[in-house]
Amino acid sequence: MTRTTLRYAFAVTLMATSGAVIAASAVVNLKTVLADPGRPDADKVRDADRKPAELIAFAGVKAGSTVAELGPGGGYFTRILTGAVGAKGHVYAMVGRPSPVLSDYAATHANLSVVSIQPGEINVPAPVDVVWTTLNYHDFKNNKVGDSDVAALTNAAAFKALKPGGVYFIVDHQAAPGAGTSVTSTLHRIEDKAVISEVEAVGFKLETRSALLAHAADDHTLAVRETGIRGKTDQFILKFRKPKK
């Protein structure tokens, strides 16, 4: 093999594997974030099931990113996202009620703002790179504002809040095929097909999905907090993109 041929073969291999190399690098860089002694031990115990480093890499969150997080709860992902975006990025945690835990955390992290919102709103000072929500979309379906459910309002708000080319990232508990939105208030699950249809209806395009949190042993018949299934539910990961034009 000639030297020119070797160079060409190396270039082809590099292009073919660059995506995997970037993703792996992002996971490695987040080890320090996950090991932060400021993270609660209870959060660290959940890392094996929730795979946060891999999710951050898949969503494309990186140093300097701006992120609007919807339904941050106790701040499990808030703390990780804040570490991932670094000092040059910013995380806006959207909360429907006061969160002393997140407010205390924001007091010592200049790149985190806790923002009080009404259901279906996203309030950011400028368009963001990523709108992120995990295990919340089914609950958005369970609430209404006037004649609209909060999911529809949230999807429209996410489209408006994102930069052109920005990412709308959704993770939730999978429902059985054909269940659609019928078990959002009972089993706290939703079918991925229903989410895709609703999100694309406001202008997003499904770019890709991941089976990272798939659990074949989950038959989708149990409520997500029942003993034996909690933390082990079959979950879908959807990455939508706002068109650049």
Automatic annotation (TrEMBL):
Keyword Signal on entry: yes
Range of residues in the leader sequence: 1-23
Keywords: Methyltransferase, Signal, Transferase
A GO BP annotation: methylation
MF term (GO), any: methyltransferase activity
Cell inner membrane among keywords: no
Top-level taxon in the UniProt lineage: Bacteria
InterPro entries per record: S-AdoMet-dep_MeTrfase_Alr7345, SAM-dependent_MTases_sf
Protein name in UniProt: Methyltransferase
Lineage: Bacteria, Pseudomonadati, Pseudomonadota, Alphaproteobacteria, Sphingomonadales
